Each structure stands twice: as C-alpha cells, then as structure tokens.
C-alpha cells in the first residue's frame, strides 16, 4: 500500500494497492485499512462504511477474476472516488453481471463465502455513481463515486 | 444484554476481546455469505456465523459489527488471528450449531437486525 497524505485541497488522500491474482486476503485487508484512513479524515460513518464495502467487493472481483490489477481510493473535496483497473478476461455482458445472484465465481471462491452474485449490485447500492468499462480478453475498469454533502466537506475543513 | 451475557448463554469461549465484553448487544445477524453480510447487515449488530475465515473478520469490521460468534466449535488459525488482532473486534466461539445459537439468543431478547442495503 502507498498512502499519500494530501497537502492543500486536492486531493486530500490517495491510497493505492496492487492486486495480484489469488491474493484473497488483500481485499479484506485493503477494506480494513481504507476504513481506518477514512475514519481518521473524519468522514461520516455511512460514507466510511459504503467506501469500505465498495473497496472490498471491487478488489475481490479483481482477485477472483483477473490476472492482476490495481485499486485506488482518492478523496477529493466533494467526493470519494474508488477505481479498480485490471488485466484479465473482462466482463462479456455487464448487464448480466449486475444482476443479483448471477456469478461466474468458481467453487473455491464460494467456499470462502463469496461468489453469491452480490458483489456488483452491492457496489451499485453503496455508490452514487458507478461506471464499468470492460473489454473481453483485455480487462475491466470500475469507477465508483460517493458524493460528499457540502456539510460533510465543511465539517472536514473545520478539523 | 452485553457480550458477556451472550458468552454465558452460548457457553462460548472468548477468542479475542476479553476487555470488550461489556459492549451492548441488541440485535443479531446470522449469515454464512460474505456478500450478504456486506449487503444486508446494519451497523452495531452481532454477527453469528459458521463460516470461519479471515474474510469474516474483515467483513465484521467493515459492517461495524459489535462482535462475532463462530458456531459449531470452529477453530481459529493463524491468518484468522492476524485479522482478528488487526480489526480489534471481539470474537467468541461456541459449540452450539447455528440454529440453536440464534434460538437461544432470540429467546433471551436479542432481536434480528434490520435489513440494511439493498432495500
């Protein structure tokens, strides 16, 4: 993990992780560390929780399905931005992948408690804006945004 | 009810967090699917599960669980213990199976957690 404490206004915090294939523990650990970092920034518990859920699910998707990739969390005034980029098989049908219950995860993943077809729907529910671009055989980019209210920003400015 | 009461009711052993057993427990959430935990669980609830792996601990942390109960006499391995100490969440283990654990807690006044997202 690399973490950059922001100077000035933009961005306030950048957290980056490399994601390796089958590094299953990385997803939970990065969610845990992101949560702690956002709590330190003084963000609302709901924003912190939703960000941690998005990070967990999005990183797990890369770990499970892709060859490798990266995860980047950026806090700028007004929003939390979560990005995953991977090199991998891509998603042939994004609408299908967004359906609750649809999963292509193998058995070993299901035994860990994942692969219930809830990941992308969870990410959508936790974000204000979600964009997924995927090219079969190349990879997938996921961009999730959580908007911070003006009050939230003011509260942080007063810290 | 506190986590200490939960420990008594389920005849559970404390794997981590002896000093946090005074935490108040009002609701419980029983689940063996990580994504369902992340999707449905509301903050401040007790997670009751037979799925014993590090993901459950990180998930409990993300969902702001008050504690975790492993049912069915699960053992904790070193990767789980690393997750537990990093997340600082109280973890208990009982030999009772899932249904009986939930039944006993419900009988003693623990309510089911409200369903969080998605609505």
Give the mean pLDDT of chain A. Answer: 89
Largest sheet: number of strands, sense, barrel closure of chain B:
6 strands, mixed
Q: Total strand count of chain B, please?
A: 6
- Which consecutive residue ranges of chain B, at least 5 long each, have pLDDT under 50? none
CATH class value of chain B: Alpha Beta
Q: What structural class should be given to the helix and strand makeup of chain B?
A: alpha/beta
In short:
Chain A has 159 residues and is α+β, with helices and mostly antiparallel strands. Helices cover 40% and strands 29% of the residues of chain A. The longest helix of chain A is centred in the middle third of the chain and has 21 residues, at 45-65.
What features would you describe in this structure?
The complex is a heterodimer of chains A (159) and B (119). Chain A is α+β, with helices and mostly antiparallel strands and 159 residues long. Chain A has a single domain, classed as Heat Shock Protein 90. Chain A has six helices and six strands, in the order E-E-H-H-E-E-H-H-H-E-E-H. In chain A, strands 1-2-3-4-6-5 form a six-stranded antiparallel beta sheet, covered by helices on one side. In chain A, strand 5 and strand 6 form a beta hairpin. In chain A, helix 1 packs antiparallel against helix 2 and helix 2 runs antiparallel to helix 5. The longest helix of chain A has 21 residues. Chain A is globular. Chain B has a six-stranded mixed beta sheet, sandwiched between helices. Chain B has one domain: Udp-n-acetylmuramoylalanyl-d-glutamate--2,6- Diaminopimelate Ligase, Chain: A, domain 1. Chain B has 119 residues and is an alpha/beta fold. The chains are: A alpha+beta (159), B alpha/beta (119). Chains A and B meet through helix 1, helix 2 and helix 5 of A and helix 2, helix 3 and helix 4 of B.
